[in-house]
Amino acid sequence: MAKIKASRNGTKKDAITKKAAALFRKKGFVASSMRELAENIGVEASSLYNHIGSKSEILQTICFKVANDFNLHIDEVEKLQEDSLAKLENLVRFHVHMMVDLFDEVYVANHEWKQLKEPYLSNFLNQRKIYEARMIQIVKDGVDEGTLKPIQPHIAVLTILSAVRGIEYWQRHKKEYGISELENDMTEQLLHGLTK
Question: Which pLDDT score is estimated for 1?
Answer without folding.
Answer: 47
